[in-house]
Amino acid sequence: MEIFEALDATECVHSAAALAGVDPKTVRRYARMRDMGVSETARSVRPKLIDPFVPKIEEWVERSQGLVRADKLHERLQLLGFTGDERTTRRAVAAAKERYRAGKRRTYRPWITEPGLWIQADWGWGPKVPGLDGEPRQTLLFCAWLAWSRYRVVIPTWDRTLATLISCLDATLRQIGGVPTYVLTDNERTVTMDRIAGVPVRHPEVVVAGRHYGTQVHTCVPFDPESKGGSEATVRIAKADLVPTSANLRSAYESFAELRGACVLFCHEVNHRIHRETAKTPASALDVERLRLHPLPPGPHTLALGESRIVKTDQTVRFGQVRYSTPPGLVGQEAFVRADGDELVVVVDLARLTHRPEWLQGPAGLTEVARHKLSLPGRPVIVAAHYPDHPQDPAGGPRPPRVKPTTQEEEAFLALGPGARQWLIEAAANGVTRMRVKMAAAVEHAALVGAGEVDAALGLAATARRFADDDVMSIVRYRATGARPSDLVVADEAHSVQPGTGAWADFGRTP
What we know:
511 residues, alpha+beta, Nucleotidyltransferase, domain 5, 5 domains, five-stranded mixed β-sheet, 37% helix, elongated
Protein backbone atom coordinates (compact mmCIF):
# COMPACT_ATOMS: atom_id res chain seq x y z
CA MET A 1 0.00 0.00 0.00
CA GLU A 2 2.93 2.37 0.61
CA ILE A 3 4.16 1.66 -2.94
CA PHE A 4 0.73 2.46 -4.43
CA GLU A 5 0.46 5.61 -2.30
CA ALA A 6 3.91 6.86 -3.41
CA LEU A 7 3.17 6.01 -7.06
CA ASP A 8 -0.14 7.89 -7.01
CA ALA A 9 1.54 10.92 -5.40
CA THR A 10 4.55 11.17 -7.71
CA GLU A 11 3.29 9.38 -10.85
CA CYS A 12 6.93 8.38 -11.40
CA VAL A 13 8.35 4.95 -10.90
CA HIS A 14 11.80 6.09 -9.75
CA SER A 15 10.40 8.71 -7.38
CA ALA A 16 7.90 6.24 -5.88
CA ALA A 17 10.69 3.68 -5.45
CA ALA A 18 12.81 6.27 -3.61
CA LEU A 19 9.94 7.19 -1.30
CA ALA A 20 8.95 3.57 -0.57
CA GLY A 21 12.54 2.37 -0.28
CA VAL A 22 12.22 -0.42 -2.89
CA ASP A 23 13.61 -1.16 -6.32
CA PRO A 24 11.93 0.52 -9.34
CA LYS A 25 11.34 -2.89 -10.90
CA THR A 26 9.26 -3.84 -7.88
CA VAL A 27 7.14 -0.73 -8.33
CA ARG A 28 6.59 -1.56 -12.01
CA ARG A 29 5.59 -5.15 -11.18
CA TYR A 30 3.02 -4.10 -8.54
CA ALA A 31 1.67 -1.39 -10.83
CA ARG A 32 1.29 -3.90 -13.67
CA MET A 33 -0.59 -6.33 -11.37
CA ARG A 34 -2.94 -3.59 -10.24
CA ASP A 35 -3.70 -2.57 -13.81
CA MET A 36 -4.46 -6.23 -14.72
CA GLY A 37 -6.77 -6.66 -11.71
CA VAL A 38 -4.62 -9.40 -10.17
CA SER A 39 -4.33 -9.66 -6.39
CA GLU A 40 -0.94 -8.73 -5.05
CA THR A 41 -0.98 -11.70 -2.67
CA ALA A 42 -1.95 -14.27 -5.32
CA ARG A 43 0.60 -16.97 -5.91
CA SER A 44 1.91 -17.37 -9.38
CA VAL A 45 1.07 -20.73 -10.88
CA ARG A 46 3.86 -22.27 -12.83
CA PRO A 47 3.14 -24.72 -15.62
CA LYS A 48 3.37 -28.39 -14.61
CA LEU A 49 4.48 -31.42 -16.50
CA ILE A 50 1.09 -33.10 -16.04
CA ASP A 51 -1.04 -30.17 -17.27
CA PRO A 52 -1.47 -31.57 -20.82
CA PHE A 53 -2.78 -34.84 -19.36
CA VAL A 54 -5.35 -33.32 -16.95
CA PRO A 55 -8.28 -33.56 -19.42
CA LYS A 56 -7.54 -37.25 -19.92
CA ILE A 57 -7.38 -37.78 -16.16
CA GLU A 58 -10.77 -36.09 -15.72
CA GLU A 59 -12.22 -38.27 -18.49
CA TRP A 60 -11.07 -41.47 -16.72
CA VAL A 61 -12.33 -40.24 -13.36
CA GLU A 62 -15.73 -39.46 -14.88
CA ARG A 63 -15.89 -42.85 -16.64
CA SER A 64 -15.09 -44.75 -13.41
CA GLN A 65 -17.44 -42.56 -11.33
CA GLY A 66 -14.58 -41.44 -9.14
CA LEU A 67 -13.32 -44.96 -8.33
CA VAL A 68 -10.22 -45.20 -10.53
CA ARG A 69 -6.93 -45.93 -8.74
CA ALA A 70 -4.08 -43.47 -9.14
CA ASP A 71 -1.42 -46.15 -9.59
CA LYS A 72 -3.32 -47.79 -12.45
CA LEU A 73 -3.96 -44.44 -14.06
CA HIS A 74 -0.26 -43.58 -13.78
CA GLU A 75 0.60 -46.72 -15.80
CA ARG A 76 -1.71 -45.56 -18.60
CA LEU A 77 -0.27 -42.05 -18.55
CA GLN A 78 3.20 -43.47 -19.03
CA LEU A 79 1.99 -45.18 -22.20
CA LEU A 80 0.78 -41.78 -23.42
CA GLY A 81 4.21 -40.22 -22.89
CA PHE A 82 4.01 -38.86 -19.36
CA THR A 83 7.48 -38.89 -17.76
CA GLY A 84 6.65 -37.43 -14.37
CA ASP A 85 6.68 -39.06 -10.93
CA GLU A 86 3.82 -41.17 -9.56
CA ARG A 87 3.33 -38.72 -6.70
CA THR A 88 2.48 -36.00 -9.24
CA THR A 89 -0.13 -38.30 -10.76
CA ARG A 90 -1.64 -39.03 -7.36
CA ARG A 91 -2.03 -35.32 -6.63
CA ALA A 92 -3.66 -34.69 -10.00
CA VAL A 93 -6.03 -37.65 -9.58
CA ALA A 94 -6.99 -36.52 -6.05
CA ALA A 95 -7.79 -33.03 -7.38
CA ALA A 96 -9.84 -34.49 -10.25
CA LYS A 97 -11.82 -36.73 -7.86
CA GLU A 98 -12.53 -33.76 -5.62
CA ARG A 99 -13.90 -31.78 -8.58
CA TYR A 100 -15.98 -34.81 -9.60
CA ARG A 101 -17.50 -35.22 -6.12
CA ALA A 102 -18.15 -31.49 -5.79
CA GLY A 103 -20.70 -31.64 -8.57
CA LYS A 104 -22.35 -34.85 -7.36
CA ARG A 105 -22.20 -34.52 -3.58
CA ARG A 106 -25.43 -35.28 -1.74
CA THR A 107 -27.04 -32.24 -0.19
CA TYR A 108 -29.08 -32.30 2.99
CA ARG A 109 -32.03 -30.28 4.12
CA PRO A 110 -32.67 -30.03 7.86
CA TRP A 111 -35.60 -32.19 8.91
CA ILE A 112 -38.20 -29.99 10.57
CA THR A 113 -40.12 -32.48 12.72
CA GLU A 114 -43.55 -32.04 14.24
CA PRO A 115 -44.75 -33.29 17.62
CA GLY A 116 -46.50 -36.67 17.53
CA LEU A 117 -45.70 -37.39 13.89
CA TRP A 118 -42.70 -39.79 13.59
CA ILE A 119 -41.04 -42.54 15.58
CA GLN A 120 -38.07 -44.46 14.17
CA ALA A 121 -37.03 -47.98 15.18
CA ASP A 122 -34.16 -50.28 14.28
CA TRP A 123 -32.29 -53.36 15.54
CA GLY A 124 -28.70 -53.64 16.74
CA TRP A 125 -26.54 -56.53 17.94
CA GLY A 126 -26.33 -56.60 21.71
CA PRO A 127 -23.88 -58.32 24.07
CA LYS A 128 -23.64 -62.07 24.61
CA VAL A 129 -25.53 -63.17 27.74
CA PRO A 130 -25.65 -66.66 29.32
CA GLY A 131 -28.75 -68.55 28.21
CA LEU A 132 -30.69 -71.24 30.03
CA ASP A 133 -27.94 -73.79 29.40
CA GLY A 134 -25.27 -71.41 30.71
CA GLU A 135 -23.64 -70.94 27.31
CA PRO A 136 -23.21 -67.37 25.96
CA ARG A 137 -25.99 -66.43 23.58
CA GLN A 138 -26.26 -63.45 21.24
CA THR A 139 -28.86 -60.81 22.13
CA LEU A 140 -30.40 -57.99 20.14
CA LEU A 141 -31.32 -54.42 21.06
CA PHE A 142 -34.58 -52.90 19.85
CA CYS A 143 -33.89 -49.16 19.67
CA ALA A 144 -36.68 -46.61 19.12
CA TRP A 145 -36.36 -42.82 18.77
CA LEU A 146 -39.17 -40.28 18.93
CA ALA A 147 -38.18 -37.70 16.30
CA TRP A 148 -39.47 -34.45 17.84
CA SER A 149 -38.68 -34.94 21.52
CA ARG A 150 -35.58 -37.15 20.93
CA TYR A 151 -36.93 -39.63 23.49
CA ARG A 152 -35.17 -43.03 23.28
CA VAL A 153 -36.30 -46.54 24.23
CA VAL A 154 -33.95 -49.57 24.24
CA ILE A 155 -35.35 -53.08 24.86
CA PRO A 156 -33.16 -56.25 24.85
CA THR A 157 -34.50 -59.36 23.08
CA TRP A 158 -33.37 -62.83 22.09
CA ASP A 159 -34.63 -62.67 18.50
CA ARG A 160 -36.11 -60.28 15.91
CA THR A 161 -39.17 -62.24 14.79
CA LEU A 162 -42.45 -60.58 13.84
CA ALA A 163 -44.04 -61.39 17.21
CA THR A 164 -41.05 -59.94 19.05
CA LEU A 165 -41.16 -56.82 16.87
CA ILE A 166 -44.83 -56.18 17.68
CA SER A 167 -44.14 -56.90 21.35
CA CYS A 168 -41.29 -54.36 21.48
CA LEU A 169 -43.35 -51.81 19.57
CA ASP A 170 -46.21 -52.24 22.05
CA ALA A 171 -43.84 -51.80 25.02
CA THR A 172 -42.34 -48.67 23.39
CA LEU A 173 -45.71 -47.05 22.73
CA ARG A 174 -46.89 -47.74 26.26
CA GLN A 175 -43.72 -46.23 27.70
CA ILE A 176 -44.08 -42.98 25.73
CA GLY A 177 -47.79 -42.91 26.54
CA GLY A 178 -49.28 -42.63 23.05
CA VAL A 179 -49.11 -43.52 19.36
CA PRO A 180 -47.48 -41.28 16.70
CA THR A 181 -48.83 -41.00 13.17
CA TYR A 182 -45.97 -42.86 11.44
CA VAL A 183 -43.47 -45.56 12.35
CA LEU A 184 -40.27 -45.66 10.25
CA THR A 185 -38.20 -48.85 10.33
CA ASP A 186 -35.81 -50.91 8.21
CA ASN A 187 -36.64 -53.16 5.25
CA GLU A 188 -36.69 -56.53 7.01
CA ARG A 189 -38.67 -59.60 6.04
CA THR A 190 -40.85 -59.09 9.08
CA VAL A 191 -41.95 -55.70 7.65
CA THR A 192 -41.35 -55.78 3.87
CA MET A 193 -41.98 -59.07 2.08
CA ASP A 194 -40.93 -57.96 -1.40
CA ARG A 195 -40.19 -54.96 -3.63
CA ILE A 196 -41.92 -54.58 -6.99
CA ALA A 197 -40.66 -51.79 -9.26
CA GLY A 198 -39.05 -50.21 -6.23
CA VAL A 199 -42.31 -50.21 -4.25
CA PRO A 200 -42.10 -52.06 -0.90
CA VAL A 201 -44.77 -54.73 -0.34
CA ARG A 202 -45.74 -54.52 3.32
CA HIS A 203 -46.26 -57.61 5.47
CA PRO A 204 -50.02 -58.06 6.00
CA GLU A 205 -49.62 -58.78 9.72
CA VAL A 206 -47.70 -55.52 10.15
CA VAL A 207 -50.50 -53.66 8.39
CA VAL A 208 -53.08 -55.23 10.73
CA ALA A 209 -50.92 -54.37 13.77
CA GLY A 210 -50.59 -50.77 12.54
CA ARG A 211 -54.37 -50.51 12.28
CA HIS A 212 -54.71 -51.91 15.77
CA TYR A 213 -52.52 -49.15 17.22
CA GLY A 214 -53.71 -46.45 14.82
CA THR A 215 -50.41 -45.80 13.03
CA GLN A 216 -48.82 -46.41 9.62
CA VAL A 217 -45.60 -48.40 9.23
CA HIS A 218 -43.15 -47.06 6.62
CA THR A 219 -39.71 -48.32 5.60
CA CYS A 220 -36.59 -46.41 4.70
CA VAL A 221 -34.76 -46.34 1.38
CA PRO A 222 -32.87 -49.66 0.88
CA PHE A 223 -29.16 -49.54 1.71
CA ASP A 224 -29.51 -45.92 2.82
CA PRO A 225 -29.08 -45.54 6.59
CA GLU A 226 -29.16 -41.76 6.21
CA SER A 227 -32.92 -41.89 5.57
CA LYS A 228 -33.40 -42.95 9.20
CA GLY A 229 -30.39 -41.35 10.83
CA GLY A 230 -32.15 -40.84 14.17
CA SER A 231 -32.61 -44.55 14.83
CA GLU A 232 -29.14 -45.32 13.45
CA ALA A 233 -27.66 -42.86 15.94
CA THR A 234 -29.75 -44.40 18.72
CA VAL A 235 -28.41 -47.86 17.90
CA ARG A 236 -24.83 -46.58 17.76
CA ILE A 237 -25.11 -44.75 21.10
CA ALA A 238 -26.83 -47.68 22.81
CA LYS A 239 -24.22 -50.19 21.61
CA ALA A 240 -21.37 -47.91 22.67
CA ASP A 241 -22.73 -47.86 26.22
CA LEU A 242 -24.38 -51.27 26.69
CA VAL A 243 -22.10 -53.67 24.79
CA PRO A 244 -18.97 -54.47 26.88
CA THR A 245 -15.85 -53.17 25.16
CA SER A 246 -12.41 -52.01 26.19
CA ALA A 247 -13.55 -48.43 25.57
CA ASN A 248 -16.45 -48.29 28.06
CA LEU A 249 -14.85 -50.67 30.63
CA ARG A 250 -18.18 -52.46 31.11
CA SER A 251 -17.94 -56.02 32.38
CA ALA A 252 -19.87 -58.95 30.93
CA TYR A 253 -23.47 -59.52 31.99
CA GLU A 254 -24.28 -62.42 34.29
CA SER A 255 -27.91 -62.77 33.17
CA PHE A 256 -30.52 -61.41 30.80
CA ALA A 257 -32.22 -59.62 33.71
CA GLU A 258 -29.00 -57.68 34.35
CA LEU A 259 -28.94 -56.58 30.70
CA ARG A 260 -32.57 -55.47 30.96
CA GLY A 261 -31.74 -53.39 34.03
CA ALA A 262 -28.76 -51.81 32.25
CA CYS A 263 -31.04 -50.79 29.36
CA VAL A 264 -33.46 -49.15 31.80
CA LEU A 265 -30.63 -47.16 33.41
CA PHE A 266 -29.29 -46.15 30.00
CA CYS A 267 -32.68 -44.85 28.84
CA HIS A 268 -33.15 -42.94 32.08
CA GLU A 269 -29.74 -41.31 31.68
CA VAL A 270 -30.09 -40.21 28.04
CA ASN A 271 -33.71 -39.11 28.41
CA HIS A 272 -32.96 -36.88 31.40
CA ARG A 273 -29.87 -35.29 29.86
CA ILE A 274 -30.10 -31.97 28.01
CA HIS A 275 -30.06 -32.55 24.26
CA ARG A 276 -27.71 -30.26 22.36
CA GLU A 277 -30.21 -29.73 19.52
CA THR A 278 -33.30 -28.83 21.58
CA ALA A 279 -31.50 -27.44 24.67
CA LYS A 280 -33.88 -29.41 26.94
CA THR A 281 -34.23 -32.93 28.20
CA PRO A 282 -36.13 -35.45 26.03
CA ALA A 283 -38.26 -36.40 29.04
CA SER A 284 -39.56 -32.83 29.42
CA ALA A 285 -40.10 -32.55 25.65
CA LEU A 286 -42.07 -35.81 25.74
CA ASP A 287 -44.56 -34.21 28.13
CA VAL A 288 -45.32 -31.68 25.42
CA GLU A 289 -45.38 -34.23 22.60
CA ARG A 290 -47.85 -36.47 24.46
CA LEU A 291 -50.50 -33.83 23.80
CA ARG A 292 -50.23 -34.65 20.06
CA LEU A 293 -50.02 -38.45 20.35
CA HIS A 294 -53.00 -40.69 19.65
CA PRO A 295 -54.43 -42.72 22.54
CA LEU A 296 -53.31 -46.31 22.98
CA PRO A 297 -55.69 -49.27 22.67
CA PRO A 298 -56.39 -50.97 26.01
CA GLY A 299 -54.65 -54.23 25.03
CA PRO A 300 -51.69 -55.22 22.84
CA HIS A 301 -52.06 -56.84 19.44
CA THR A 302 -52.81 -60.55 19.57
CA LEU A 303 -49.81 -61.36 17.35
CA ALA A 304 -47.46 -60.40 20.17
CA LEU A 305 -49.35 -62.39 22.80
CA GLY A 306 -49.87 -66.00 21.77
CA GLU A 307 -52.03 -68.19 24.02
CA SER A 308 -53.11 -67.06 27.48
CA ARG A 309 -52.11 -69.16 30.49
CA ILE A 310 -52.34 -68.80 34.28
CA VAL A 311 -49.15 -69.57 36.22
CA LYS A 312 -49.90 -72.45 38.59
CA THR A 313 -48.78 -72.76 42.19
CA ASP A 314 -45.78 -74.82 41.07
CA GLN A 315 -44.62 -71.84 38.93
CA THR A 316 -45.36 -73.62 35.65
CA VAL A 317 -47.49 -73.01 32.58
CA ARG A 318 -48.81 -75.76 30.35
CA PHE A 319 -48.38 -75.74 26.58
CA GLY A 320 -48.93 -78.76 24.35
CA GLN A 321 -49.49 -81.01 27.42
CA VAL A 322 -46.03 -80.12 28.72
CA ARG A 323 -45.25 -78.07 31.84
CA TYR A 324 -42.69 -75.27 31.59
CA SER A 325 -41.29 -73.41 34.60
CA THR A 326 -41.44 -69.63 35.08
CA PRO A 327 -39.43 -67.27 37.31
CA PRO A 328 -40.64 -66.65 40.88
CA GLY A 329 -43.27 -64.05 41.70
CA LEU A 330 -45.71 -64.86 38.88
CA VAL A 331 -47.96 -67.44 40.58
CA GLY A 332 -51.59 -66.70 39.79
CA GLN A 333 -50.66 -64.13 37.13
CA GLU A 334 -51.61 -64.24 33.47
CA ALA A 335 -48.86 -65.16 31.02
CA PHE A 336 -48.83 -65.58 27.25
CA VAL A 337 -46.96 -68.42 25.54
CA ARG A 338 -46.09 -68.87 21.87
CA ALA A 339 -43.87 -71.22 19.90
CA ASP A 340 -40.92 -69.58 18.16
CA GLY A 341 -39.22 -72.25 16.07
CA ASP A 342 -38.05 -74.94 18.48
CA GLU A 343 -38.45 -72.67 21.51
CA LEU A 344 -41.32 -71.65 23.77
CA VAL A 345 -41.50 -67.96 24.66
CA VAL A 346 -43.28 -66.87 27.85
CA VAL A 347 -44.37 -63.23 27.91
CA VAL A 348 -46.24 -61.17 30.53
CA ASP A 349 -48.02 -57.84 30.21
CA LEU A 350 -46.70 -55.60 32.98
CA ALA A 351 -49.87 -53.52 32.87
CA ARG A 352 -51.99 -56.57 33.79
CA LEU A 353 -49.87 -57.80 36.69
CA THR A 354 -51.51 -57.37 40.08
CA HIS A 355 -48.05 -57.22 41.66
CA ARG A 356 -44.68 -56.93 39.93
CA PRO A 357 -41.69 -58.97 41.22
CA GLU A 358 -38.60 -57.04 42.23
CA TRP A 359 -36.47 -58.68 39.52
CA LEU A 360 -38.93 -57.71 36.77
CA GLN A 361 -38.05 -54.15 35.79
CA GLY A 362 -38.59 -52.34 32.53
CA PRO A 363 -41.05 -50.22 30.60
CA ALA A 364 -44.76 -50.89 30.68
CA GLY A 365 -46.00 -53.38 28.13
CA LEU A 366 -45.06 -56.89 27.08
CA THR A 367 -41.89 -58.38 28.57
CA GLU A 368 -40.30 -61.76 27.92
CA VAL A 369 -39.70 -63.63 31.19
CA ALA A 370 -38.70 -67.15 30.10
CA ARG A 371 -37.65 -69.15 27.04
CA HIS A 372 -37.45 -72.95 26.85
CA LYS A 373 -36.73 -75.65 24.32
CA LEU A 374 -39.96 -77.33 23.21
CA SER A 375 -40.46 -80.74 24.79
CA LEU A 376 -42.74 -83.76 24.48
CA PRO A 377 -45.58 -84.83 26.80
CA GLY A 378 -44.29 -86.51 29.91
CA ARG A 379 -41.03 -84.53 29.84
CA PRO A 380 -41.57 -81.29 31.77
CA VAL A 381 -39.01 -78.54 31.35
CA ILE A 382 -38.04 -77.28 34.80
CA VAL A 383 -35.19 -74.80 35.30
CA ALA A 384 -33.58 -75.01 38.75
CA ALA A 385 -32.76 -71.28 38.66
CA HIS A 386 -36.50 -70.54 38.77
CA TYR A 387 -36.63 -72.15 42.25
CA PRO A 388 -33.71 -70.54 44.11
CA ASP A 389 -34.92 -71.31 47.65
CA HIS A 390 -36.35 -74.78 47.09
CA PRO A 391 -34.82 -77.39 49.45
CA GLN A 392 -34.98 -80.29 46.98
CA ASP A 393 -31.83 -81.31 45.17
CA PRO A 394 -31.95 -79.91 41.58
CA ALA A 395 -30.55 -83.22 40.31
CA GLY A 396 -33.60 -85.07 41.63
CA GLY A 397 -32.09 -86.52 44.81
CA PRO A 398 -33.96 -87.05 48.09
CA ARG A 399 -35.09 -84.03 50.02
CA PRO A 400 -32.97 -83.41 53.12
CA PRO A 401 -34.86 -83.69 56.42
CA ARG A 402 -36.13 -80.53 58.08
CA VAL A 403 -34.65 -80.11 61.57
CA LYS A 404 -37.31 -78.65 63.85
CA PRO A 405 -36.93 -79.04 67.64
CA THR A 406 -40.08 -79.91 69.60
CA THR A 407 -38.73 -80.25 73.18
CA GLN A 408 -36.41 -78.23 75.39
CA GLU A 409 -33.76 -80.96 75.26
CA GLU A 410 -33.75 -80.90 71.43
CA GLU A 411 -33.55 -77.09 71.41
CA ALA A 412 -30.60 -77.17 73.84
CA PHE A 413 -28.76 -79.70 71.68
CA LEU A 414 -29.35 -77.90 68.36
CA ALA A 415 -28.35 -74.60 69.98
CA LEU A 416 -24.76 -75.90 70.12
CA GLY A 417 -24.30 -75.10 66.40
CA PRO A 418 -24.28 -76.57 62.89
CA GLY A 419 -22.14 -79.51 63.99
CA ALA A 420 -24.94 -80.68 66.27
CA ARG A 421 -27.45 -80.47 63.41
CA GLN A 422 -25.11 -82.45 61.14
CA TRP A 423 -24.57 -85.10 63.85
CA LEU A 424 -28.33 -85.46 64.34
CA ILE A 425 -28.98 -85.99 60.61
CA GLU A 426 -26.09 -88.44 60.12
CA ALA A 427 -26.83 -90.39 63.30
CA ALA A 428 -30.49 -90.77 62.33
CA ALA A 429 -29.53 -91.93 58.84
CA ASN A 430 -27.11 -94.55 60.29
CA GLY A 431 -29.65 -95.95 62.75
CA VAL A 432 -27.73 -95.01 65.92
CA THR A 433 -29.36 -96.19 69.14
CA ARG A 434 -29.75 -94.20 72.39
CA MET A 435 -29.53 -90.91 70.50
CA ARG A 436 -31.37 -88.88 73.15
CA VAL A 437 -28.93 -90.05 75.86
CA LYS A 438 -25.94 -89.08 73.72
CA MET A 439 -27.50 -85.70 72.90
CA ALA A 440 -28.02 -84.96 76.59
CA ALA A 441 -24.40 -85.98 77.30
CA ALA A 442 -23.18 -83.58 74.61
CA VAL A 443 -25.10 -80.73 76.25
CA GLU A 444 -23.52 -81.57 79.62
CA HIS A 445 -20.04 -81.68 78.06
CA ALA A 446 -20.69 -78.27 76.48
CA ALA A 447 -21.29 -76.79 79.92
CA LEU A 448 -17.81 -78.02 80.95
CA VAL A 449 -15.56 -77.42 77.95
CA GLY A 450 -17.60 -74.94 75.92
CA ALA A 451 -20.29 -75.18 73.26
CA GLY A 452 -17.86 -74.39 70.43
CA GLU A 453 -15.54 -77.31 71.19
CA VAL A 454 -18.39 -79.76 71.55
CA ASP A 455 -20.07 -78.53 68.35
CA ALA A 456 -16.82 -78.93 66.40
CA ALA A 457 -16.39 -82.43 67.84
CA LEU A 458 -19.96 -83.34 66.87
CA GLY A 459 -19.28 -82.21 63.29
CA LEU A 460 -16.11 -84.32 63.11
CA ALA A 461 -17.91 -87.29 64.64
CA ALA A 462 -20.66 -87.02 62.00
CA THR A 463 -18.06 -86.87 59.22
CA ALA A 464 -16.13 -89.87 60.58
CA ARG A 465 -19.36 -91.74 61.49
CA ARG A 466 -18.30 -92.18 65.11
CA PHE A 467 -21.47 -92.42 67.17
CA ALA A 468 -20.32 -94.38 70.25
CA ASP A 469 -20.93 -93.08 73.79
CA ASP A 470 -17.47 -91.62 74.43
CA ASP A 471 -16.57 -90.66 70.84
CA VAL A 472 -17.45 -86.97 71.25
CA MET A 473 -15.30 -86.46 74.35
CA SER A 474 -12.52 -88.50 72.75
CA ILE A 475 -12.51 -86.11 69.82
CA VAL A 476 -12.53 -83.11 72.21
CA ARG A 477 -9.45 -84.43 74.01
CA TYR A 478 -7.79 -85.24 70.70
CA ARG A 479 -8.36 -81.67 69.47
CA ALA A 480 -6.91 -80.32 72.70
CA THR A 481 -3.56 -81.85 71.74
CA GLY A 482 -3.40 -79.52 68.72
CA ALA A 483 -4.06 -82.15 66.05
CA ARG A 484 -5.43 -80.97 62.73
CA PRO A 485 -8.86 -82.08 61.45
CA SER A 486 -7.23 -82.88 58.12
CA ASP A 487 -5.51 -85.85 59.76
CA LEU A 488 -8.88 -87.44 60.37
CA VAL A 489 -9.14 -91.04 59.12
CA VAL A 490 -12.54 -92.40 58.13
CA ALA A 491 -12.74 -96.14 58.66
CA ASP A 492 -14.33 -98.14 55.86
CA GLU A 493 -14.15 -101.61 54.31
CA ALA A 494 -10.95 -100.74 52.46
CA HIS A 495 -9.08 -99.77 55.64
CA SER A 496 -8.17 -102.05 58.55
CA VAL A 497 -6.54 -101.20 61.85
CA GLN A 498 -5.64 -104.80 62.66
CA PRO A 499 -1.95 -105.85 62.44
CA GLY A 500 -0.93 -107.95 59.49
CA THR A 501 0.12 -111.64 59.52
CA GLY A 502 3.37 -111.17 57.62
CA ALA A 503 5.39 -111.88 60.78
CA TRP A 504 4.05 -115.46 60.88
CA ALA A 505 5.36 -116.31 57.42
CA ASP A 506 8.60 -117.88 58.75
CA PHE A 507 7.05 -119.52 61.80
CA GLY A 508 8.30 -123.13 62.25
CA ARG A 509 11.07 -122.89 59.71
CA THR A 510 14.61 -123.80 60.75
CA PRO A 511 17.38 -121.36 59.91
